[in-house]
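Long-time lurker. I teach an intro course on protein structure, and each term I like to show students one example going from raw sequence to a predicted 3D structure in token notation. This year I'd like something fresh instead of my usual example. Would anyone be willing to generate the tokens for the chain below so I can use it in lecture? Attribution to the forum is fine with me.
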Amino acid sequence: MIEIVVVLRVEDAVLDFLSVLTDPDPGAGPAAVVLADRGDVLPLPAGTPPAERLALLAPYVRSAEEDASSPGPDALAGLIRRAADGHSARVWTHSPPTTGAAGDAWAGTPPWPAPA
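-- Reply from a regular --
Happy to contribute to a lecture. Here you go:
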């Protein structure tokens, strides 16, 4: 089974899913990170040590000032299928914030009022 982490920005993968990305079990299978803002998949091969997996993510970190947006549900589904590469998969993601630029970029403007 492959572990697939789906995030808007690579920073979200490191901050929210570090335990998934750095599983210390040497028999652990592969993982992949779907970078929604880039419309790309970053494979993390099985047996890759935690520090090396994090090093693979480092080139994708961007300035917080840069805009990020989701490619939409159909494109995300295609990216997840590409990441799974025909294998069974467990998909990890999070509920983005309901307020602020990051939440709006991922899910659109929420239909409910923002907290005061």
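Some talking points for your students: The first helix runs from residue 10 to 16. DSSP finds five helices and four strands in the chain.
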